[in-house]
Design brief:
Layout: H1 9-21, H2 24-60, E1 66-71, E2 73-75, E3 81-83, H3 91-96, E4 101-109, E5 117-118, E6 134-138, H4 142-146, E7 149-153, H5 158-163, E8 167-171, H6 172-178, E9 188-191, E10 194-204, E11 214-218, H7 219-226, E12 233-238, H8 243-254, E13 262-265, H9 272-310, H10 312-320, H11 325-362, H12 370-396, H13 400-407
Parallel strand pairs: 6-11, 8-10
Antiparallel strand pairs: 1-12, 1-13, 2-3, 4-6, 4-12, 5-9, 7-10, 8-11, 9-10
Helix pairs in contact: 1-11, 2-9, 2-11, 2-12, 9-11, 9-12, 10-13, 11-12
């Protein structure tokens, strides 16, 4: 900027600095609005990213590491669905050899027919009918595959399965319904007239929650007592990221000649559910941050405009000494931009500390994009520029004589 009128760049910076520092109290209040706006923006987006990551990890903990293998179905002539093939009984062994597979459990739903499931050997025909627990058959790897835990007792093993032993494991709901809460006395339940020794009670599972309301028998027992011919599905616990590989190789491992007859539900890499949750949470918090920024920008504009009104005499004197309209406007724009930058820097720092502090308190992993932090600080300067544009034009439009008279 030329010094022909006696007001150069150095003078502009000096006058702007004087205007900013002349009223520390007002400066603090003006910066506070921007600080709160920028801090709110960083906190809301940062917590949205962190919270979205936590939600996604909760989904990933099970969904991203679980696959379901089932026989494909075909439409019969009568419109009914029937299986095109059956899962082999050695499915756990076959799938267990695939890379990324951690555990496999075969499952089948059983039909008890007219046989009642009770905890007493005699059934009172006059007693009111009660809802019967479900009847399920599974292989011995049920708990690892479904991430289940036992409340008491043990799970049946491959020996029970191979011998067709009449043993049963109860889900927590079924145990409560049948009145069985301990296994140390070797309690029995009755399916029809046949007694089955209860050896364990399942307290919780992460997949197939219906198992908690079921009586679970070994597959070998179900084949011998109920004529089970095939399993309905295989629950497969896999390593994170192994979904596409398992989906490709499982049909070949179970049905090499007709792999198209096997269906596999496996998580894809980059869970779309995670992306949708992240996007929705970000949108909500971004709107809140935008409102806070609008409030901060209005605060800067209001205080800058009041500053113009209070400094009418100063503006008139500077114009009388040779400062042009552009130089007056530049001075006030520089002041508002500086205030915005200061507020942006302080707000971004406070917002970052808040995100990290909350994450540490909640034992979360903080997720904060550094570009967001740097961009938020610069955004404070942009807000100052926009907010100071009108007051700067207002100051530049004052005539020297009128300004001097107004300042007297």
């Amino acid at each position: 900027m030329s010094r022909r009128n006696g007001f150069g760049v150095r003078d502009l910076v000096r006058e702007s600095g004087h205007g900013i520092g002349a009223r520390p109290g007002k400066l603090a209040l003006t910066i506070l609005g921007t600080v709160l706006g920028i801090a709110a923006l960083v906190v809301t987006i940062g917590m949205a990213q962190t919270g979205g990551g936590q939600i996604a990890r909760q989904f990933d903990a099970v969904a991203a590491t679980q696959a379901v293998v089932a026989p494909g179905t075909a439409q019969g002539a009568d419109g009914s669905s029937r299986s095109r093939t059956a899962l082999p009984w050695d499915t756990p062994e076959r799938l267990g050899r695939l890379n990324g597979v951690e555990s496999v459990a075969l499952l089948a739903d059983l039909d008890a027919g007219d046989r009642r499931i009770t905890s007493v050997p005699l059934v009172d025909p006059s007693a009111p009918a009660q809802v019967q627990p479900r009847l399920v058959a599974s292989s011995s790897e049920l708990l690892p595959a479904l991430r289940g835990t036992l409340a008491t007792g043990r799970m049946f093993d491959s020996g029970h399965d191979a011998r067709g032993d009449r043993v049963a494991v109860l889900g927590a709901g079924a145990a409560q319904r049948l009145g069985v809460n301990r296994v140390d006395s070797q309690p029995s339940i009755f399916i029809g007239e046949d007694a089955y020794t209860v050896i364990g009670i399942v307290s919780d599972v992460s997949r197939r929650r219906d198992v908690l309301d079921a009586v679970i028998l070994p597959l070998g027992t179900a084949r011998a007592d109920f004529g089970l011919t095939s399993a309905s599905e295989a629950q497969v616990k896999i390593a994170v990221g192994a979904g596409p590989l398992v989906a490709e190789q499982a049909p070949l491992a179970l049905s090499p000649n007709t792999p198209e007859n096997i269906t596999v539900q496996a998580p894809a890499v980059g869970n779309r559910l995670q992306e949708n949750v992240q996007s929705d949470v970000n949108a909500i918090f971004l709107a809140l941050g935008a409102v806070a920024l609008l409030v901060g920008g209005l605060g800067i504009a209001n205080v800058t405009l009041l500053g113009v009104i209070e400094r009418v005499g100063e503006i008139g004197l500077r114009r009388a000494l040779g400062a042009s309209r552009r130089q007056i406007a530049a001075q006030f724009v520089l002041e508002s931009v500086t205030i915005g930058l200061l507020g942006g820097l302080i707000g971004a720092a406070l917002g970052s500390f808040a995100v990290v502090g909350v994450s540490i308190a909640q034992e979360w992993t903080p997720v904060l994009d550094l570009r967001l932090v740097g961009g938020s600080a610069l955004l404070g300067g942009v807000i100052g520029l926009v907010a100071g544009a009108y007051p700067a034009l207002k100051a530049a439009s004052l005539e020297p004589v009128a300004a001097l008279r107004g300042g007297l």
